Amino acid sequence: MNKSITKSSFICVILATLSVTHGAYAAAPIRLPEVVALVPTGGLVFSTALSKKRNEVYAVDARNKMLYVIDGKTNTRKEKATLDLQDAVVNGIAYNETTDEILLVDYAGESSRLLVLDRKTMEFVGSPIALDSLHAAKVVIDEATDTAYVSNMHSGTVSVVDLKNQSKIADIVIGTGAPTPAGCNPWDSANPCTTPGGNPLDMKINPKTHKVYVASYTEGTISVIDTRTNKVEGARIPVGSQPNGMGIDTGTNRVYVNNWQDGTVSVIDGDTDTVIGEPIVVGSGLQDPLHCYEAGKLDACKSWGSMPLGPIGVNEDKHLVYVASSNDGTVITINGKTNKVVGEPVHITTGPLVPGGCANFGACTQGSSAQNVIYNPKTDRLYVVSLADAWLMVLQGQGSKTAAPPSTHNH
Amino acid sequence: MKPFNRVLQCAALLGFLLATPIKASLADEAPTGFDGLSNGFILQGDYDHDQELFEKRHTVAGGLGPVFNAQSCAECHANPVAGGGSQVSVLRAGTFDGKKFIEPPGGTVIHDRATDASLQSKVADAWNVRTQRLSTNTLGGGYIEAIADETLLKIAKRQPQQSNGEIHGQAVMVDLIEVPGAQRVGRFGWKSQHASLLSFNAEAFRSEMGITNSLFPSENTANGRAVDEFDTMADPENNGWEVALLTEFVRATKAPPRDAALAAGADAVAGEQVFEQTGCGICHTSTITTAPVDTLVNAGTFKVPAALGDKTIHPYSDFLLHDIGSGDGIVQNGGPSSRNKLRTAPLWGLRTRSRLLHDGSALTVQQAVKRHQGEAATVMEQLKALSAVEKQQLFKFLDSL
C-alpha cells in the first residue's frame, strides 16, 4: 500500500515537473525573425545554398548568369569569388560540406548536366556529368554516400549521381513520369506536351532516415526515395496544389511542404510518411476564388493569397519553421511543436506586391516577393530571396520582437 | 438465311482453341474484383489518390462548364465501385438526309447542363437522329488498351469464316489524339470511337465536364453557340496532369469479376457451352490475351507494363462494330458505314447493369438478346432452336457475368 502510494506520488512529481517545464516552454515567448541586412544580386535569384562550414551563402543569378558567394559574417558578396557561369543555365545548387564542393544543375540545351565546382579554387572538377534529361531542376546531396539526387522536371525522373565516379547510376520515375507524347518539350511551342508528367521539382533529404522527399509539382504529391535502394518507397503522399518547396525538422522527423496554389503548408510525419493535420494556412492564405491563379485570366482572382514559394527554413533546435510568402513578401514562422503559425508575418522589404499577383506576371510596381528560405543553425541567420527587389535578405532568426501571446486573429 | 452448320462451327472453334493453347496457357489471368483495389499497375495508395480525382466534384473555379453533363467522372462511372458504369445517359443527335449523317452545330453530344440558362443546349425538331447513350463500364480498361491491334484484326478476319460471311466485325482505325497523325484500332465507347484511354479520358474531361485540356483545348459549344462570355478560365483549363492521373486510375482498375457462386453452378457452366455453340461468342469473344509485356502500343507512347501485359481476360467482346439492328444512326469515328453499327457490348459485369443496350431500351437480359438481328440473325435462329433447358442454362450463364 505504502509503497504504491510512494510510487504514484513519485510519478506525480515527475509529471508535475514535466508539465512545469512544458508550461515554461509554452510561456517562453517565441522570437520572430528580423531583417538585419540585404545583399544586392543581379536580378533573378531562384536558388541559394548554404555552407555552414564556411559561413557562406551561394546564390545563382539566372539573369546575368553569375554565381555569387556571400560572406555570412559581413553580409557582403565576395567579389573575387564571383563566377561567370557563361553558357550554363543553372537552376539547382547545393553545397557538399564534406568535400567542400558546390554542385550546380545546368539545364541548358537538350540534355541537362550536373557541374561540380571546387569551392576552394572556384574551378570545375572533371567534366560536366551528363544527366540525359530535360530541364533538370534541383539537387540534394547524400554526403554519407557521396551521392547526388537531381530532379528532372520534364523527364519526370530523379537522377542518381555517383559523385565519386562522376557518373549517373540510375533514373527514378516520379509520379506519372515523363510528359507525353514522348520527346515533347513543354517550353517549346513547336513541340508541346499534352500531359505534364510527374514534374519533380524541389527535394529535401533526411540523412538520418535515408529518405529523399521529392515534390511532384503538377500532381500535388510527394514521392519518397529510399537512398539505400534508390527506389520510390510506398505510395505518393498527396499534399496541396503545386507543392514546390520543403523543409525537414530531422529532430521531430516532420517534413513541411509549401503548397503554392493553396497558400498553405502541409505537414508530413516522416515516420509514417503520411500527412498529419489540416494544411496550415500561412500569411494572406487561400486564393479567392480558390485556385483562381490557375484560371490564367488576370482578373480571375479577387485575392491572390500568400502563395508560399521555395524551400522552407527550419531551426531544429527550437523547432521553428520559416516559410516565405511570395505574394505577401513576408516570412511566416510556424511553431513546429504545435504546427501553428506564431506571431505576425515579417515583411522582408518593401511590403506586399502591387498589383496583387504581379510576381506571377513580372509586372510589379511596388513591394517585394519573398521566396526560398535557408536557415543557418550556427549563426541563427535566415536567407530569403526578395525577387522583385533583386536582393538576398538576411534575417536574424531570433529577432528583437516576440510573437504576441496566442493571437485570436484567424487567417 | 441458312443456319450455320453447328458441327462445322464447333470444329472451327476447336481448331482455334488448339491453334493457340500455348499462348493461352502461358498468360496469367488478369485480376478481377469490385474491390477498389489496384490491379498492380500502381501502388494502392496511388490508386486511392487517383480515385479521389475520379470522384472529385469539379466547380466553375476549376474549369467546369460552361456547358457540361456532370461534375465528376464518378457521377456517371460508379456502379458498383468507382470506374464502373451507371444508368446515367448522354444525349446525342444529328440529321440523316437519306444519304448521309450530318452532325448538328457543335457536335453530336447535346449537353444537358449549363452554368447559364441562355446556354442550354437542346435537340432541334429537325434533327431526326436521336439517342441516349448509357455510361459504359471502365473497369478493366487497361487490359482493353493493352490488346494489340493484330489481335482484334485477327478476330475480325475469323468472324466471316465462322458465320458463312454473315458476321463481319468492323475494326475502325481511329486517331490517337495524343499522337497527331497516328491511328490505332478503336475499342472504347459504344462506337469504339477511341483507341487509347488518354484520348478517351481527355475528351470525357472536356465533353462531359467542360474542362478543356491540352488534348481537347477548345470548349464545348451550346448547340454551336460560343460560350466565351460565361467562361471564366483561359483554355486549356487543365494542362493535362489530371487527365494523366485519371488515365493511370482506369489503367489500374481490375477487370469486372464474375459472380463466383453462380459461375460455379452446373447450369452456368453448361450455359457457357451453349453461349459458344449458339454463336454468341463469335462477337462476344470470351477470351483475349493482351500484348506481351513491354510491347509499345498507342503509336509507341505507352509501354505495356507487367501488370497489364500477357494477361488473359474475359471481356465477352471483340471491340468491333456490328450491325445487329439496334443501331442509333450516329456516325462517330467509324465513317458512314458505321452509322447503324455498335461495338459488341462487353458482357463482363453484365449483372451490375439495370438497363441494357446502348440506349437503355432493354430492361432485361432476355429483351436485350431478343433485339439482336442483322449480323446476329442466324445466331438468333440458333438460339430459337435451343431446348428450354439449354436456354435456361444460357441465361444462368449470362446472370453470372
Commentary on this structure:
Chain A has one helix at residues 2-27, and strands spanning 34-40, 45-51, 56-61, 66-71, 76-77, 83-84, 90-96, 101-106, 113-118, 123-124, 129-130, 136-142, 147-152, 157-162, 167-173, 200-206, 211-216, 221-226, 231-232, 237-238, 243-249, 254-259, 264-269, 274-281, 313-315, 320-325, 330-335, 340-347, 370-376, 381-386, 391-396. By secondary structure, chain A is mostly beta strands. In chain A, strands 2, 3, 4, 5 and 6 form a five-stranded antiparallel beta sheet that branches. In chain A, strands 7, 8, 9, 10 and 11 form a five-stranded antiparallel beta sheet that branches. The N and C termini of chain A lie far apart (54 Å). Chain B is α+β, with helices and mostly antiparallel strands and 401 residues long. Chain B has one domain (3-399). Chain B is 30% helix and 12% strand. Chain B has helices spanning 6-19, 21-26, 44-55, 141-145, 149-162, 197-207, 241-252, 260-264, 266-278, 280-283, 365-370, 377-384, 388-399, and strands at residues 28-29, 67-68, 86-96, 101-102, 109-110, 113-114, 129-135, 173-175, 183-185, 288-289, 296-297, 302-303, 311-313, 321-322, 342-343. In chain B, strands 3, 4, 5 and 7 form a four-stranded antiparallel beta sheet that branches. A three-stranded mixed beta sheet of chain B has the order 1-13-10. Mean pLDDT of chain B is 93; it is low at 5-24.
